[in-house]
Amino acid sequence: MKSEETPFEGGPLDGRVLPILLGPTGHPPKTYRVPVPDSAGGPPTVLVYRRVQAGVSKKLGLHQGWKYEYDPTGRSGGKLKWPWSKPDATPDGTAPDATPDGKPEDTHE
Asked: Which portions of the chain are predicted below pLDDT 50?
């Protein structure tokens, strides 16, 4: 299997360069999860890093590799978003309101 030396930015892995296995398309995975064991024996903490473009060439604007940036929210990403899927919950745990602000829900009187 092929691997690529990929830099990490932010979080506990900031500044490290690790070999990451490439997929069948030649790209590293979109998210990289690192389980960190709990010293008290509890469930491990999972650090989430997201793949971003490392840079572009000056003349032609071509892609120049990948890097991983720390995602402190740690939300699971990379899922397909279908039109019939339920919306993501807001931070208070409720679903977002579908009606725009200032408009009544029932316009038929």
From this structure: none
